[in-house]
Amino acid sequence: MSKSVYSTDHAESVLSTHRWRTVSNSAAYVLPYLQDDIKILDIGCGPGSITVDLAKRVPNGHVTGIETESDPLEEGQKLAEHEGVKNVTFEVADAHKLSYEDDTFDIVHAHQVLQHVGDPVKVLTEMRRVVKPGGIVACRESAMPAWYPASKGIEMADDLFRRMSRDRGGNPHPGSHIHMWAQQAGFERSQITCTTGSWCFSSPDERAYWGGSNAARAESSGLAKTAVDKGYATASELTEMVKAWHEFVNNDNAWYAILHGEMVCRK
Q1: Which residues contact 261 (CB under 8 A, 6 or more apart)?
Q2: Global pTM?
Q3: Domains delineated in the chain
């Protein structure tokens, strides 16, 4: 994805949030379309947790996971080897210009990818090109976060993400209108089914995972470095965000939720 506008990097704090993602908690809307022997392309696969899970569910088929750079793909390959999954491959590729032939895959899937690319309509056009007639393009994107209790630090963190993403050409939290992009990419409205899903982090373990990973992002990821270097936030503001996430982790009444927009586009 040469036109990626990803606002952070593949630091450990970022990959830890991606590893948690599975088909069940992040792509359950695709489950009715899975068959034993189909071919799937997973775009923006990161460290491969969803990719490998998909491959387990199509044991006589094949799943290809692609990313803009090789670093997270190495972890995906290790995960596949550890799980004994052999019907999966990982490749570096540009989602704006896929190298695959027309009508190659039964399902082309992307999770939280369109918000991080320079031209989401172009990516969807490519996804539509390489899916087979009768196949589906499936996408899920965040639409709206919510949290309790009110927190200036978490509000600052959310605002920082939105500003950095927009300035780099991204589209933060686009889940409410991804079906409009799909129509610009050539799908008819009648071919698109829209649904929603959500994450909610409220138990002690869930808060530790979500709050801890976000605190680490504000401390040491590429997002934190870029934020200071480019003047989006001061070091003291980042420290306030880190403190807020730790307070979130330690508050038994706290929760954080994200509403996601989902779509299945039938070619």
Answers
A1: 140, 141, 142, 143, 174, 175, 176, 177, 178, 179, 194, 196
A2: 0.91
A3: 12-266 (3.40.50.150)
